[in-house]
Amino acid sequence: MKIVIIGSGFSSLAASCYLAQAGFDVEVYEKNNTIGGRARQLIKDGFTFDIGPTWYWMPDVFEKFFNDFDRKVSDYYSLEKLSPAYRVYFDKNDFIEIEDSLNNIVETFESLEKGSGQKLEVFIKEAKDNYDIAIKDLVYQPGDSITELITVQTMLKVSQFFTTISKTVKKRFKDNRLQQILEFPVLFLGAKPSNTPGFYNFMNYADFGLGTWHPKGGMFKVVEAMEDLALELGVKFHLNSNVDKIFVENNEAKGIRVDGAEIKADVVLSGADYHFTETLLEKSQRQYSEEYWDKKTFAPSSLLFYVGFDKKIQNVCHHSLFFDAPFEQHAVEIYDTKVWPENPLFYASFPSKTEDGLAPEGKETAIFLIPLATDLEDTPEIRELYFDKIITRFEKLTNQSVKNNIVVKESYCVNDFKNDYNSYKGNAYGLANILTQTAFLRPKIKSRKVDNLYFTGQLTVPGPGVPPSLISGKIASQKIINENKL
């Protein structure tokens, strides 16, 4: 039985492995010239950049994935736990480092706000309880029905679904810096802390409890590891293969058209953008209208810069966050007014701080990211304006001059997300995980209108992020396996 998969991001790679393991004939079609979807790699003049994800959180999810194939993460790549995990700047000479152990983080909180250390211990214990419920059970559900969410454990937590992360944090902690640090992890879910259910504080356990890691070689090493596993299992990959149609006969998917050629299949699984995938069908075969998508709350887009410096950069960690601007204003500009931010928060990654081989000797690899609203006007002039904004602030906050030390600079923004990934409105992270877009309320794994057509990735369950994408691949593949017994 043949299955074709559209796209080769994390969810597609995961699904391909599970389906091949189950005995299906699996072929993956990727429009770009390398696998990985949004997690591709850029190498230029000796500098190595992860184009997409740079954070390695929730290591247990990656380990669980490889364990499903009697493998271990260490069979494919090595991990280093970062210490400190990251640094957060609030002003010049005002920053907080998050260490690699909860005890140290508790001490840091206590030093900044008397009594907050004990409050943090209680908060993280609650977050761990939620993590155990969510990651060990709920997120592996297919999103078919509300009954998937109704368990003894979730009924005890029901009140947390009707408050928000922001309210929960601000009720317990008064120091604005501590509030922002605790609100930060839910940004990985693609929504404002003020719109994210309190139950999702399990992301704080992912942060403080499980730590931040670096795969040697960068996040693209994880992509290569999954590709290696897929090849071992017999999956075939086709690059530079643009899918422009899904063939349907008698309301049943029969294959895809790739650059004019028909590829027959018994099942079609798409890890490409969900909205885009449905445009490969006739209108009558689509489940969701343009109005449906337009009303959805999407996770942000991003403006990214890949920068090579001809010297080592001082006063930064591998991961550095710059929260010297008003958090709420930037959030409003992303989700409400949907304009270019006046004074954006931003993030910078310096992977060569951890691994020398990612930059030439004596030099530094850097990735800068500004979260943005989707579907903004995107021009070279606007990109340059914003680079100047953040690099000027960066120099001030870290007390150093770096503008004249740039030897490599590439950018990536809304238009690139649209062109490279057919991303709806140029979003970077999929559909936000707010209450009305959680679990069974997200677009479905299986098409209700076309038999043998399935979806996986950040626009369906469980949601945005790399670990959820691995889980989405497993959910989709299990549904296919259960409904197409060999």
Keywords:
486 residues; alpha/beta; seven-stranded mixed beta sheet; five-stranded parallel beta sheet
Largest sheet geometry = 7 strands, mixed
Total beta strand runs: 19
What's the end-to-end separation, in Å? 8 Å
β-strand amount? 15-25%
Question: Could you say which structural class the secondary elements and strand pairing correspond to?
Answer: alpha/beta
Overall pLDDT metric: 96
List low-pLDDT spans.
none
Seen as an oligomer or otherwise, the chain set is single chain
Radius of gyration: 22 Å
- Give the fraction of residues assigned to helices: 25-40%
Helical run tally: 15
Strand and helix map with partners:
Elements: E1 2-6, H1 10-21, E2 25-29, E3 41-44, E4 47-50, H2 59-67, E5 79-81, E6 86-91, E7 94-98, H3 102-112, H4 116-136, H5 152-156, H6 165-172, H7 176-183, H8 202-209, E8 213-215, H9 220-232, E9 236-238, E10 243-249, E11 252-258, E12 261-264, E13 267-270, H10 274-279, H11 290-295, E14 301-309, E15 319-322, H12 327-335, E16 346-349, E17 364-372, H13 380-398, E18 406-412, H14 414-421, E19 453-455, H15 466-483
Parallel strand pairs: 1-2, 1-13, 2-9, 6-15, 13-19
Antiparallel strand pairs: 3-4, 5-8, 6-7, 10-11, 11-12, 14-17, 14-18, 15-16, 16-17
